[in-house]
Amino acid sequence: MKLDDKVTLPDMVTQMKREGIEVIESAAGVHFATCPLCNDTDMSMTINDERQIFVCSNCDRGGRIHTFIKYLKGFSSKQAVLYLVKQAAIDMANEKKEAQKIINSLEANNEK
Ligand SMILES: [Zn+2]
Q1: What pLDDT score does 1 carry?
Q2: Mean pLDDT rounded to a whole number for the chain
Q3: Cα(72) to centroid of ligand 1, in Å?
Q4: Residue 112: pLDDT above 80?
Q5: Count of beta carbons in the 10 Å neighbourhood of residue 111
Q6: pLDDT tens for residues 56-83?
Q7: How far apart are CA 70 and CA 51, in angstroms?
Q8: Which CATH architecture does the domain made up of 3-111 adopt?
Q9: In this structure, how many other beta carbons lie within 10 angstroms of the beta carbon of residue 31?
Q10: Residue 70 C-alpha to ligand 1 middle, in angstroms?
Q11: Rounded to whole angstroms, what are the CA distances from 101 to 46, 87, 108, 110?
């Protein structure tokens, strides 16, 4: 899908944790999780943080974060991307708020 070349979607591991999925990090930047898309009990899902892709060796599903959300929520591709864009916008707004807080406290210190 072309959309996520233009739009920054939330980080895969961050989003999966937000969806209540327990993600375990291995030493090499590879993460494992029990796949919520099938009857997995074995931590069959591998998440490559660098490439931002997941793959489940149990149900053979894999792809980018919007593909995961599509399967997880039963969304269409478009719905999944919109959902993630919204999440990214919330993250950005929160970051902005944090940045403003820091700026405010720096300015307050300067005035003293
Ligand atoms: Zn699976």
Answers
A1: 43
A2: 90
A3: 11
A4: no
A5: 5
A6: 999 999 999 999 999 999 999 999 999 9
A7: 19
A8: Alpha-Beta Complex (3.90)
A9: 20
A10: 14
A11: 37, 21, 10, 14
Instruction: Kindly report the pTM of this predicted structure.
Output: 0.81
Cα 42 to the center of its chain, rounded Å: 22
Tell how far the Cα of 73 is from the centroid of ligand 1, in angstroms. Answer: 14
**pLDDT score recorded for residue 65:** 95
Distance 66 CA to ligand 1 centre (A): 16
Ligand 1 mean position, distance from CA 43 (Å) = 9
| Domain ranges, ordered by start, for the chain | 3-111
Compute the distance between CA of residue 20 and CA of residue 69 in angstroms, rounded to an integer.
12
Higher pLDDT, 26 or 64: 64
Rounded to whole angstroms, the Cα distance separating 111 from 102 reads 14
